[in-house]
Amino acid sequence: MATTFYPPQRTLMGPGPSDVSPRVLAALGRPTIGHLDPEFVTLMDEIKGLLQMAFQTDNQLTIPISAPGSAGMEACFVNLLAPGDKAIVCQNGVFGGRMKENVERCGATAIMVEDDWGTPVSVDKVSAAFAAHPDAKVLAFVHAETSTGVESDAAALCKIAADNNALSIMDAVTSLGGIELKVDEWGADAVYSGSQKCLSCVPGISPVTFSPKAVEAIQNRQHKVQSWFLDMQLVMGYWGGDSKRAYHHTAPVNAMYALHESLLMLEEEGLDLAFERHMFHHEALVKGLEAMGLNMLVDQSCRLPQLNLVQIPEGIEDAAVRSALLSQYDLEIGAGLGAFVGKAWRIGLMGQACYQENVLLCLSALDNVLA
Ligand code: PLP
Q: What is the distance in A from the centroid of ligand 1 to the CA of 43?
């Protein structure tokens, strides 16, 4: 017979979810109230303000979507593309491929700009793609590729999109709260993230933000958004600016308490200090790994501090090491994906998982398992 589930106490140093602080878990356990309760509406407004702080934006349409990062991704594509449109999609890892799927499911054409896994998106190739396709309506790229641990030059990519009268769609699932992300300064038009990475909240919520230019494009659509749930014009009726909130869907009320608390923690620490903390512990981890004779696979110039791609030494079996770390140390690290299956581990230092204890645990556990 099934009984109450008590999860093991793991340390989450993979590609996400990351460790959730007891403070956020306590918020999650508070009494559920109605999703139109005035107290909840007040909380929604605070969440919107805190998300503006995290995204560094004044965008009015800055809200959490009640579904995981993939839904945030889909929300950006279905609201900004219509059948017959063209979108330039950059792929240098797993998630550019998912973007292509989204473009095609909107009935639009994806012009692919491909770069090797483990390298950033080439700004020159994107410029060349716009020269060949000046009618492209959207440029989509991943800021922080979780599948490889690579950061692309989001500021430059948003600028190319703006210079070509296209809207930029940026995947910031792994970047939000971990590295600099300046939505307004960079002129990004539609940005989505996830709750479970550097925000260290429970999985299942996708913060999104849309620029006034993106909102105008949504309002001027001639073609109905094919997704009812993700149609931003409908979602705005619930999350919108005025005090009249209409039922759209039942928000995951307790998960929103958790998101609110995780954003408060980020605000209390301050964005700059959070970014410095990620870089500091990343550098310590890299030094330790290199001292053990392990190699980092991504060039230092574009390494993400929050996701570290480490080469698996010759003769070492990937799965055996990860499963020993899990069973002996309750430590989760990630497997390689795509071009890096069996060749690399992905060690996450995201949000609450990015502290000295975790770096030391990871280094000593890996050293013992590899010995
Ligand atoms: N984009 C990136 C860069 C991701 O890392 C992920 C998840 O790992 C996603 C999108 C999809 O997010 P979710 O798994 O929350 O749907």
A: 26
